[in-house]
Amino acid sequence: MDIFSEIDPIRSFIKEKKADGKTIGFVPTMGSLHEGHLSLMKLAKEKADEVIVSIYVNPEQFGPNEDFEEYPRELESDLKKCEELGISAIFTPTDEIMYGYSQYLRIEIDELNRYIDGGSRPGFFEGILLVVNKLFNIIEPDYAVFGQKDIQQFIILQQMVTEFNHGVELVMGPIIRANDGLALSSRNAYLNEEERQKAPSLYRSLQYIEKQVVGGVDQPKLLLEHQKSELEAKGLEIDYLNIFARKTLTPVETLTKNEQYIIAGAIWVGETRLIDNILIEF
Ligand code: AMP
User: Fold this and answer.
1) 57 touches ligand 1 (CB under 6 Å)
2) 0.90 cut: is pTM over it?
């Protein structure tokens, strides 16, 4: 497995592979890899001949009061996991290489980041678009795999690929969970034992809402209020818990047939913010 931190050498590496007729799959990550990340790499391997993984904690997607400094960094064990999976190359640039100039352009998002995580984390998706746009230009992959765990990210990136004519096909991998339902996340490492026990409540709430909606509840307001109170009673603080239209990423009051919806929530478990979602179509 080759490890690159600079742009020109990884470009040459990929150029050679493409000259040999190989297709390139790409999985961007912030490292501290868990089974969720590994599942995306396996998907990428099914799609493409050579898989490149980037490991880069992108400062541009963290707000001033967020956890950029504390974010777990475990490069050595990450590299081992990638090597075991048969990843072709790792791109792990420094901030200097990614953003080594005093000013740069940003991509503005019109509507798609008004709610869900975009509503709570100003600048978050602009930071993601900036880094993924750069990474796509460096790697020029045929396929790029992202997780449903960050479904708003996937939908906004799909829009970027379409609008900016990136020649890449995006693939969405399912959410990988612990046995008790908690979605795997690098941030789960922040949870103490008591918090870890409470954390799966979010997914249980989403599942309950899904069951009610599939069972015929088409005006979910009261249902959502009730689930929020239940979570709060467990000592969890709610950032949002709502049902959004998949197309527009806006909250819906009345569900209609033949539409796709996202039941999504973000909660604070102590100092840790966790997100999760369920995609439904009915
Ligand atoms: P991150 O390192 O958190 O930026 O995540 C890198 C990629 O892994 C993103 O596409 C995430 O959506 C995806 N991901 C994170 N957690 C999971 C999970 N539990 N299951 C599947 N994919 C995940």
Assistant:
1) no
2) yes
